[in-house]
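Milestone M4 deliverable, item 7.
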Amino acid sequence: MKKQTISKKTTIKEAMVALNKNDIKCLLVIDDQKKLLGTVTDGDIRRGILNGLRLKSHVVKCANTSPITIDEKHKIKNVNEFLKENEITILPIINNKGKLIDFISYESTKIKIQKEKLKNVNTVIMAGGKGKRLEPFTSILPKPLIPIRNKPIIEHIIERFYESGSSNFFISTNYKASIIKAYFNDKKISYKINFINEEHPLGTAGSLKYIENKFTSPFFLTNCDVIAELNYHDLYNFHLKKQYEMTIVASLGEFTIPYGILNLNKKGELRKIEEKPSSSHLVNTGIYVLSPNVIELIPKNKYFDMTDLIKAIKSNKGSIGVYPIHEDEWSDVGQWDEFQKTERKFSVK
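Output delivered:
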């Protein structure tokens, strides 16, 4: 039971790491006397972050403090039906003083949870760039085909979307496009590949104009150098529920300034020195969910980046959501240090 519980002093960062290693995807928050204070899922943490909590904040601040529980003397005839009906993955067992005694989950009953899969959701992969940050490799191979553990980057990306139920892919190409097309033409695949041909570089969003009338429902868009371990089903439903025009997947990271920072008073004199301060920031991962109507805002045959599309949506009074994830859930393999780090991470899996 120890791996399922966290203390009330556990930070959001520590809880996110614990959830990533947890099959049930729900943690039980207890105090020093093992009294149950609440439950925490990644959805609870996501809401907390969007409400201003930081990585150093105590996770109990965003916990569900009124979870469904049962008394230790109570018996449930069909545990799996109870969990399913109440849409929970874990059922804490407490005594009459609120102390956590045990818990019941699908895992404890030896029943495997079937992951929900998406249906008829398209994925666009922007693969037209030159990949200058990965030179000299990209002078020979296009970035999407550079291998990580004997498999091209783009295959790692496609696999993750395909496992979530997305099986129709649109790949936007320009630089060394013929090599990318030849690779897939020679490969037996169980998903569909459609190519978008950029006659000249159109930025990270411009080529979407070529498929303006292809989609009638929201679709995924990802850069070709981002590998993420996400619950894409949850991400997609988050976008639908909030009715956003765009949802940006953002990584919550803590950044430290490697110097002492001087704070001055109004006279320009030293008030205090802050040694190597750190702060939390949400970083754009390059993964999005887009509603098809936003393509109307993209000019035809013009260079247009995602930042331009974001500005256009906001100018058009559209809504843009943010879906926070932990920094360990994604890798930007478009730069050498992260590429090598990802190779090391994959080698221990």
